Structure formats: structure tokens, C-alpha cells
Structures
1.
Amino acid sequence: MTTAVDSTNRFAALLRRARIDAGLTLRALAERVGTSHSTLAAYEQGRKTPSVATFARILECCDVALDMSLSRRIRRADDIERGEELRAVLELAEQFPRRVSRRMELPIFGRPR
């Protein structure tokens, strides 16, 4: 389950990444957004959480598009519990060799035998 702290930290990381990718300082972005650099710093550090409108405005000032979509969380697939599916995948992975030969055992395509 996602907590409010997790969401705040995700928003903070996204804002910081958008600002840095845009090549902006806190002060330069604050001027574009029309707020103080200390407020932006608080958002980036997760001490404050911006409203959705403010979050979108900050990203827009970083020349970043905010795309949102909803998708169902996968809990079960084909009537198999997710843990059981993971166990089956790990068992399959164990069947592959742990090390591969550095020497190719089959002929290279395009070369006669």
C-alpha cells in the first residue's frame, strides 16, 4: 500500500529530476513558477507537498509534460497467485546454465563448415 510519505517522496524526486533535466536552478525555476525558491526546495525535499495544480505548473515551467493514466494493479494472472508465478519463474531460471562457454560451439552463419 502506498502511504502519503511515499507519494510525497515520489513527487519530490520527480520535481527535482525535472528541474535538473531542464538545467534550472531553484531560483530560476521559482521565478518562472512565480513562487519562492524556499518553497520549491521544500517540495523537492519532501517537507511540503504541492497541490496537483501547482505540481503541474512546476513541471510545465520545466518544459515537461504531465501525462496521467489509470491502470489496474496486477494481483492475479491466469488464476495464479503472484507469489506462485514468481516461484515458477525462478524455478525455470534455475534450469539455464549459470555460465556460458566463451567458445562458440555451433558454426558461425555465413561460413562453410
2.
Amino acid sequence: MVQRFSRGDEQAFNALYREYYRPLRYYLYKVVGDDQEAADIVSESMLKLWKQREGFTRREEVKSFLYTVAHRSALNALRDRKRHAAKEAELAATIEATGHRNFFDQLVLTEFLAQVTDEVEKLPPGQRDVFKLTYFDGLDTDEIAEALGLSQAAVYTNRKRALDALKLRFGQADPLFLLIFIKLFES
């Protein structure tokens, strides 16, 4: 079956998927503590397996590849979670230090970030992915390039285009929103 999979046989891949999905998901759940995140990592790992299918000759190689890729992805997810929590704590500390903890300020910021999120979803896929990984997940250029399979130049270009498009949209909507956007994402 592994030889058929290696040659691109989708039925063989489906059989391997069924064989490894549950144990891999269980393993990842133990690592990341979130069932949906574990399922997502399994799916991504299976996709990577399919893309790298040529050259596998034994089941042990497939299993080793899957667990290695999945384990690395799980560790990255945990690191990203920690980084995101640190960014939230930093933002909370900044808000507290500047004395802007009143309800109205929080409401405006929450509303604004919801609008940013909506506008980001309208960006072309490359720009959207780079923007999210940069500003929502806190990844640096090298990490984004590796995660998306892009060059650093492509990451810079997509980030700049995303920022330019969003500045244009917010500038047309309300100059105050444009100022808030620039303060949050370009400082």
C-alpha cells in the first residue's frame, strides 16, 4: 500500500489517513490540550504527507514522518499560544499604564478590532495570511516565510500591500479610524 501511496494513489492515501488519524489526533490532544486544534494539526500533517509522498517505501517511514511533522506543529501551536497570551498581557499593561481602562475606550477598541478583522478577511489570500500571521499570531518574517512557503521578499510585499489596502479602506471610512489603525499596526 505504501508504494501505491508513494506513486500518488489516493485510495492508498485514504487508507493511511484512516489508519493514522485517530492515534495521531489522540497523541496531539495530549500535547496541545485542545481537540479541534489537534484535529487541525492532523489534517495539516496529512496534507504535508501527501505533498511529500514520493520516496516512502515502508509504513514505519510514513508513521515517523507524520508524528515528527505533527509534533513540531503542536510545539509551534503551543509557542504561538504563549506568544499570543504575552501580546494580550502587553496590550492590557499598555492600556492600564496610559489610564485608558474605562468602558468606552474598551468598547471603541473592541469595535475597531472587529472592523479590522472583517476588512482583513476581504484581502487577497496571500496578504490576508501574512497580515494575520504577523499581527494576530505575532510571527516574524522568517517564521511566516517558512509557514507559507514564501520568500522573505514575498512576505514583505504581501504585508505592505495588506497595510496599504487597509489604510486606504480605513482612511475612506473615517480619518480617526485611519489614525487608530496606524497607531496599532505600524508602530
